[in-house]
Amino acid sequence: MKKTFNVFLAFLFSISFWSCEQADSNPKALLNVILIDAPAQWDSVFVQVEGVDIEIQLQGRESETQTFFLPYSLGDKVIEVSALIAGEGLLLGRDELPVGKIVSATFRIGNSHSLFLDGERYVLPLANSGLTEIPLDLEMDLVQGIAYDLILDFDLEKSIRVLSESPLSMELDPVLTAVSAIGTGELKGTISPTTLRPALYAIISGDSVSTHVNSSGSFLFRLPAGIYTVYIDPKDERYQAGTIQNVEVIAGKSTELSRITISPK
């Protein structure tokens, strides 16, 4: 069984000194790769994850790069990605890596994916059956003796496409964002009524990140520092959408919004 943990204090803002007995001629940094989810409206979504490739430009050898594979090694590798919400995360891999700069990362998945809706299981084939390696935009410096957290945000809202309503047919085209915990902050809150499953969008400079609430109505974004507009889509035509302007996210801190109440039309 996969092990999840709350990343609010344990990982999200950690940049800690890490004791390593490597000689100075072979300096290392510690990298934690953590998977979180911006969930969709489905009851549960399962994705087969193989691991992550990390490409590093080695310090002192800027013309040379090396790729390191951090595998996800538990069980059958099938992860309930939709459960990783409101501060829950999954440690995909951890390794000591040479110092330098991470210049790219690649998320590697299998072909066994599915989702559940109203108690029924649906196979979730890849949009491109051969596309099991998803490149991620990432630049991140690794300094000797420091432990770093790399957050992979799996956006299921954008990743699952409905091909047919009757019969229901879907496909998976994975959309992920990779960010270092350095320079990011949390934005969280609670929405009522808790019977709704609204989608929330944090918007900045024309770009947006989405998430949903858990069963208690709580939500949590992990975002680069900046000023955001939060848009709430109730996903129910009986209720009004809402917008919150000028929400500031501060690096290394958690910002909590006042309780949001979605009003009926």
Describe this structure in words.
The chain is built from two helices and 24 strands. With 265 residues, it is mainly β. It has two domains: 1-182, no CATH class; 184-265, Immunoglobulin-like (Sandwich). Strands 4, 5, 6, 8, 9, 10, 11 and 12 form an eight-stranded antiparallel sheet that branches. Strand 18 and strand 19 form a beta hairpin. The longest helix has 6 residues, at 7-12.
Note the total helix count.
2
Q: Return the structural class.
A: mainly beta
Overall mean confidence score, pLDDT:
83
Cα Rg:
19 Å
Distance between the termini: 43 Å
| Strand elements, count | 24
- The count of domains is 2
Order of helices and strands: EHEEEEEEEEEEEEHEEEEEEEEEEE
Helix content: under 10%
Low-pLDDT segments, ≥5 res: 1-17, 19-23
Give a nutshell description of this structure.
4% of the residues lie in helices and 57% in strands.
Secondary-structure map:
Elements: E1 4-6, H1 7-12, E2 16-17, E3 28-38, E4 44-58, E5 65-71, E6 78-80, E7 88-98, E8 100-109, E9 114-117, E10 120-123, E11 133-136, E12 140-142, E13 146-155, H2 156-159, E14 160-165, E15 168-172, E16 176-180, E17 184-192, E18 199-204, E19 207-212, E20 218-224, E21 226-233, E22 242-249, E23 254-256, E24 260-261
